TrEMBL record:
<dbReference type="InterPro" id="IPR003593">
    <property type="entry name" value="AAA+_ATPase"/>
</dbReference>
<dbReference type="InterPro" id="IPR049945">
    <property type="entry name" value="AAA_22"/>
</dbReference>
<protein>
    <submittedName>
        <fullName>ATPase</fullName>
    </submittedName>
</protein>
<feature type="domain" description="AAA+ ATPase">
    <location>
        <begin position="51"/>
        <end position="236"/>
    </location>
</feature>
<dbReference type="Pfam" id="PF13401">
    <property type="entry name" value="AAA_22"/>
</dbReference>
<dbReference type="InterPro" id="IPR027417">
    <property type="entry name" value="P-loop_NTPase"/>
</dbReference>
<dbReference type="GO" id="GO:0016887">
    <property type="term" value="F:ATP hydrolysis activity"/>
</dbReference>
Length: 353
């Protein structure tokens, strides 16, 4: 253990069970530069009074987006503390996950039900439009598209509920699931539903998800006008500042490993950088596995050689990195020449008419 970086975990943990020690490490949060910076930018986008109504936080898997969304939630709760104290019925900020569709398209009905439950609505399962009278008599007509009407009713109730509960910010994590549809034509409906939610209830929606969310920017001009994108990137080995920030994060994580002797992993920082793809999530999961096995084997510490055994396979890393790089490229803006080319095309089409 070096004096410059004393251990951070409560020392009693060393006498605790393997499970408790590993859980402590899994739960511990450190401050790391990209997350801090992204938090500041997301908060500023949310606050800008007459600004966009949709803030999209995008980044690769494992960057720490879900953790960030909970930090945003906590920061906003703090911000609205007075409002909550004055009006206990108010829900100024809400957070929920967009659940991955079960085979087909994203399930709005389920989403609205969970949103209403978050707001304390206990009658969500009873919300549906009254069937037309002839549907009440067997065999008289084709069945009503009940699913659709129920979703519509839930949508309207959700929008009203957000208004009455004075909700100002709605955070949707794993929001790329909203865009998962079995028919590409349905995407437009997904955009409409988001637009309706923000306009009708006047909330700022924070969509947190992978780069797949960029489809909104690329395909819905109407939502683009109302959105701002906040990038939460991985650490990039080619950037000097990122190397330093990754090193700091690795040291902070080392200090949280409840072992009698603090591992000196940062001596091999490049190796850890490479084998985690610059992702704090991948790094932390990896170190958790090392910790568990080190404790089970009765070791007092572990080193990079030991960690090798528990690292992700290179093939898995390549898949993750490919996806991240593809997202980073998609995020790059088009050139002004491309804008000019589109204008030129428009002029030509007009002349040919
Ligand atoms: N600031 C942080 N400090 C420590 N661990 C973190 C931090 N942010 C994220 N993690 C860990 O990294 C892993 C992935 O984080 P998560 O927020 O789920 O990422 P994402 O949503 O981008 O996939 C989780 O195990 C989480 O606990
Ligand atoms: Mg996540």
């Amino acid at each position: 253990m070096t004096n410059a970086h004393p251990q951070r975990f409560p020392v009693q943990l060393l006498g605790s069970t393997t499970e408790n020690r590993v859980q402590y490490f899994r739960d511990c949060l450190i401050e790391h530069a990209n997350q801090q910076e992204c938090l500041a930018r997301a908060m500023s986008a949310i606050y800008s009074a007459c600004g966009p109504r949709i803030v999209q936080v995008v980044g690769p898997t494992g960057a720490g987006k879900s953790t960030l969304s909970r930090k945003i939630y906590q920061a906003l709760l703090e911000q609205y503390r007075d409002l909550i104290n004055m009006d206990p019925g108010a829900v100024p900020v809400a957070i929920l996950d967009a659940i991955a569709p079960n085979g087909s398209s994203f399930n709005w009905k389920d989403f609205y039900i969970r949103l209403l439950e978050k707001h304390g609505d206990i009658l969500t399962n009873r919300k549906m439009l009254v069937p037309r009278q002839h549907d009440l008599f067997e065999g008289l007509s084709a069945p009503l598209p009940l699913e659709r009407t129920t979703t519509e009713a839930l949508r309207r109730t959700s929008e009203k509920c957000l208004k009455y509960r004075k909700t100002k910010v709605l955070i949707i994590d794993e929001a790329h699931h909203v865009l998962m549809v079995n028919d590409p034509k349905r995407l437009e409906f997904q955009f409409e539903a988001l637009k309706s939610l923000t306009i009708e209830s006047n909330v700022v929606i924070v969509l947190v998800g992978t780069y797949k969310l960029l489809a909104i920017r690329d395909q819905s001009g109407q939502l683009v006008r109302r959105s701002e994108i906040v990038h939460f990137p991985r650490y990039n080995l080619r950037q000097k500042e990122d190397c330093q920030n990754f090193l700091n994060a690795l040291i902070e994580l080392e200090r949280q490993l409840p072992l009698p002797v603090m591992p000196n992993l940062h001596a091999k920082v490049r190796y850890f950088f490479l084998k985690s793809g610059g992702s704090i999530g991948i790094l932390k999961d990896w170190l958790s596995r090392c910790l568990e096995h080190a404790i089970l084997r009765g070791m007092r510490t572990f080193d990079a050689k030991f960690a090798e055994e528990f690292a992700l396979s290179n093939k898995s890393l390549i898949t993750i990195l490919d996806e991240a790089i593809e997202g980073e490229i998609a995020l790059e803006d088009a050139s002004l020449d491309e804008v000019k080319a589109v204008n030129q095309r428009a002029i030509l089409t007009t002349c040919q008419r």
